[in-house]
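1st attempt posting a full record on here, be nice pls
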Amino acid sequence: MPPADDVTEGKLLLAEYDRIKEEQKTRIGFRDNLLYFTLAAITAVAAITVESGQSHLLLAVPVISLVLGWTYLVNDEKISTIGCYIRDKLGPRLAELTAARDTVFAWETYHRDDANRTTRKRLQTAVDLFTYLALPMICVTAFWCSRAAHPLLVAVSLAQTLALAVLGWQFLRYTER
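the predicted structure (as tokens):
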């Protein structure tokens, strides 16, 4: 362990930066894989449903979408929060300590100034809503149109629909502009 004299506030801030960038990178990989995993799980449920002819199995899709969608959303929010923390707190503090003339960790703001960023964010939100809201609602609607639509299962599907609406609202609410 280095002597206490070797530990400076600047070194601590740089170490913190390294750790939270690593966390951000890990969360980005996990979040992006959740999208693929969700699509694979929905496809698997749809294939099993078609193969077995048991349309009530489609009600597994909203559950999958709710759990994985919420996990996706929470990770996405943490990724954005890390970037905000670096831009608003960590970078300015390190710039103050070093008397830097330019922005410290400039990438954190530079990549946000892209002219196409707003369009990309809107398209990503559309993909997220399609994956985590529209696909499960298509499955619920298919279930409602089937002969397996018994009152108890219809009640379950209505509760799922409400939960999906809440998830969709959260996606819109947390969409970074």
